[in-house]
Amino acid sequence: MKLARPDVFHPRIVLAGSPALPEGDRDDAGLIPALRKRGLHARWLSWDDPATLKADLVILRAARDCGERLAEFLDWTRRVRNLLNAPEVVAWNTDERHLADLADAGVPTMPRAHGRASPETALVFLGGRQSHALARGGEVEPDFEVWDVGHAALAAAADQLKLAPTDLLYARVDVVGERTDPRLRRLDLVAPALGWQQLQATTRARQQRVFVLEVESALDRLGLGPFSHRRP
Question: What's the domain of life for this entry (predicted)?
Fold first, then answer.
């Protein structure tokens, strides 16, 4: 294994799971090896582990119980040094009113009373750019009208939060309907399932590399890039 250079700052990265999944789930199993290939070292911890507060960067992944302990969780997000996605993103997205914000911004949304009989597609974005889409347990290529809803939701969310879409490490947009009337059902910016294991191996490797490159970009924005803190 290539040794870390002693004269270069190496940020301490944590992938945050939950008490039930302190080491994440099977879907994210490839993320730590993908980070390591780029010289970034990370480990899994439950989000409520005190050691997360010592990390330079925490990436929310399998925080499945955050809704059950929402007040505690939101307080923790504000105490972490650097969190992806950011604490203000998490607070807005965990408030049910965020869907009304998106509807007010002109994003076509599904009425709450609407059933789930319509086809549903999960659109995954990395760094504000479309990555892959999933439906019926596998990878799909949605019509551009479906992607348009995803892009509109992401742009409206970023505008609401006064961020650029590229500031969001990841996003998952669940859309119901097909090209005739696609509508937003759910936007997840907190710790969405990204469906890595549903992708073909080559696609998964390529898009996980994109994920890591977006982590690198975030580290640079935060002043935590590997060459931004030279030791004297």
Answer: Bacteria
pLDDT surpasses 50 at 231: no
**230 pLDDT above the threshold of 50:** no
CATH of domain 96-189: 3.30.470.20
Q: What is the pLDDT of residues 116-155, one digit of tens each?
A: 557 899 999 999 999 999 998 799 999 999 999 999 999 9
CATH of the domain spanning 1-94+196-232, picked from 3.40.1710, 3.40.1050, 2.30.30, 3.40.50: 3.40.50
**DSSP letter string, the chain:** -PPPPTTS----EEEEE-SS-TT--GGGTTHHHHHHHTT--EEEEETT-GGGGG-SEEEE---TTTTTTHHHHHHHHHHSSSEES-HHHHHHHTSTTHHHHHHHTT--B--TT--S-S-EEEEEEETTEEEEEEETTEEE---HHHHHHHHHHHHHHHHHHT--GGG-SEEEEEEES-TTS-EEEEEE-SS----GGGS-HHHHHHHHHHHHHHHHHHHHHTT--TTSS---
